[in-house]
Amino acid sequence: MWIVALALRRPYTFVVMALVLIILTPIVVLRIQLIFFPTSTFRFVSVCGTSAGSRPRTWPTHRHNSERGITITVNDIEHIESQGRSPASAS
């Protein structure tokens, strides 16, 4: 409640702070550099996943979808390898 009392006592201070935020926000947002996938020197991708409760004959479909998604998202991959095994043999 103290911030409301302060804002009522000093309204110009809060107006100036709001204007500064409004003016600086686009400048800061434009200067931020986002790196989704950092550059790397290796060209090998390995993905491990579990598919509990699925039948072994559906594994190739799951693997194919994962491999296709990786090749669409990541550039310059030289090799993709995937293996499937049942949960009983995972230990």
Q: Can you tell me about this structure?
A:
By secondary structure, the chain is mainly α. It folds into two domains: 30 residues; 42 residues. 48% of the residues lie in helices and 4% in strands. The protein is built from three helices and two strands. The chain has a two-stranded parallel ribbon with strand order 1-2. Strand 1, helix 3 and strand 2 form a beta-alpha-beta unit. Helix 1 packs across helix 2. The protein is elongated and about 70 Å long. The model has no long low-confidence stretch (mean pLDDT 77).
Q: Would you summarize the structure shown here?
A:
The protein has 91 residues and is mainly alpha-helical.
Give the secondary structure arrangement, pairings included.
Blueprint: H1 2-9, H2 11-31, E1 44-45, H3 59-73, E2 79-80
Parallel strand pairs: 1-2
Q: What percent of residues are in strands?
A: under 5%
Topology as H/E string?
A: HHEHE
- Mean pLDDT over the full residue set: 77
Sheet with most strands: strand arrangement: 1-2
What is the 3D form?
Answer: elongated
How large, in whole angstroms, is the Cα Rg?
A: 26 Å
Structural classification: mainly alpha
Report the uncertain regions.
none
Taken together, the total number of domains comes to 2
Main sheet: strands, sense, barrel: 2 strands, parallel
The number of strands is 2
Total of DSSP H or I helical runs spanning 4+ residues: 3
Relative helix content: 40-55%
